[in-house]
Amino acid sequence: MKAMVVALACLVLPLVGQSAPRTDQGATPPADVALAHVRRGAIEHLPDGEALRRYTFEPAAQPSVRMTPAQPWRGGELRMRVQNAMPWAVTLAVDVEGSAGAHLHATVGLPAGPPQTLVVPLHATSPRDFGMQAGPPMPFGQAGQRIVLATMVEGAASLEAVRAVQFSIPAPQAEQALLIGATGTSAGDTPRAAYGGIVDRYGQYTRAQWPEKIDGDAALRTRVRSGPSAAAPARGDTYGGRPDVQAKATGWFRTQKVGDRWQLVTPDGHPFFSLGVNAVAADGGRSYVQGREWMFTSLPPTTGKWAAFTGVGDSRRDTGASRGLGYDHGRWFDFYAANLYRVDGTGWRDAWRQRTRRRLAAWGFNTLGDWSDETIARGHRLAYTRSINVAGDYANVATGYDWWGRMPDPFDPRFKAATERAVGKATDDVRDDPWLLGYFADNELAWAAPGPQGRWALAVGTLRGEPHSPAKQAFIAMLKHKYGDALRLGVAWGIGVTRWEALQPAGFQAPVPSEAHPAIAQDYSAWLRTYADAYFRTVAQALHRHDPHHLFLGGRFAVRTPEAVAACAQWCDVLSINVYADLPQHGMDLPTLHALGKPVLVSEFSFGSTDRGPFGAGPVPVWNEAQRGENYARFMQAAAADPAIVGAHWFQWADQPVTGRLLDGENAHFGLVGITDIPFQSFIEAVTAANAATARR
Length: 697
Known about the structure:
The protein is α+β, with helices and mostly antiparallel strands. The protein is built from 13 helices and 32 strands.
């Protein structure tokens, strides 16, 4: 294919990889360049002779440079030589226009420093295509160049030709200068280079350094074994409660309210603030390797001593979490467990449990959170929690969000039977254990969906269901009881319904609530409460039959509605809410929760950064490791100060794999320890101090 030569203004700028004379003036540009709130400056030559022109983006809504080639560019990637002339990173938005109005969009961060090559694949792509939620940091080095790859490109499936490209800086508050050089398209597979060889034999990211990174087995053993050799002296009573305050001792964990403050109370009768950690388990380092072996520099063999750390899985599900995720089945390798074996040999699991138990105590934790290895806690001076995971062939309802799956239909008799089985299994061996704090019911169910109308997603999804849906029939029966005549419903909702049979077909398009028809929101709200009551009542009644002693800790809410939370408060002992915000009061409506008259457990919270290996920082990112500790301390101080909050559980014990966990490709730096089991020392120091202060509250 013949190379196209592109010019910006009066400077001939070649396609990447082509040569061109240094021409400053007088050339006829083969591409049209349009500027909006951008000033074109002089051509500047770098020491190696490369020529780039300065463009100054003025403060405006979207200052932009738009290039339209005389003939469409063809190739697999758009490439542009660019230098950020500012001393800080600049956000650059790229819009690529193809035939018939097709577009691709990307947003990249251009770091300050020397020139780099910006690469935008001419097809929609994201890190999920490569099996992970967050892609590798940019820039990276390739053939002596700094490459900034747009890892997230949205829009058309692909573009065969580029008819125009626009570069803009979204709403700069001050002038921003970029030096732009050769621009065009070329063949190539830069994404494969960007993702290639990014993980070493220990599961660490290969292209960065940080204090806890190791380069050999000896260093690994030394760093892992350098932690506390014995558990810290017990703080408080046997269970970690405050011994200076005495309440009624029942032999079980319970709740009580003193004045306006809720408290957990230990079996010995002392106030207890639950300081917990989620996912304290040895199997969190599993990541799929099959088909993407090229991402790893040194994978162990699947035979011999390493066979215990490899397996075959399949994470393909009809859920939002797995939708569009590449490399989601096949052979996996467990980097975390393999590192534990490198440290302690064949007895690694028991050694890890003992070491982890000492660490949790030394760092001020008194509770083992959800999805954890209970052997660490049971009988070892550490409270723990357990999940009731209801599964079966009962009906379900789609909300459109369905991140972990569709909502269970509590009106289906098969759900009640499945709940009875699940509760019986969950309680069978622990109903007489005083160290059990309580039970959670499921996790992050899709009570709502994102967006302004997301609150009503479960009601709309119920009416959209199949005619035989038990939930749909229950909703219609509720409407019949209220309105009697379907025509009255049609008038109240502003829809052309005159017969109840009109609601029966699958795919019924329920109306969106509006000010003109307030009855819609009223009826949807009543249904949401009815639905949630049915779910939590079924779980609570089964739990009370099988285990009357331990606490029902609620449903680990993520997306939620006021109706679901109120129903849960009616049936549970403690409301559990996963809070991803800088402070508890910014992630939940605490005044409303106070009015519900139940204590609140923050069942998940976390802060992540990208300076310790994994590419993701999670829902609440901070700039660096130091800020993780600062934010932890502020969050815990605010949690302990609120009269309804009785505990907070950190998510999670260890960092997630660089290439993504099996479940959904999540690959964030959440850990107290890394994939090597080495603690993040500065963070641990901040956590220990904050936990000590919280325990004294």
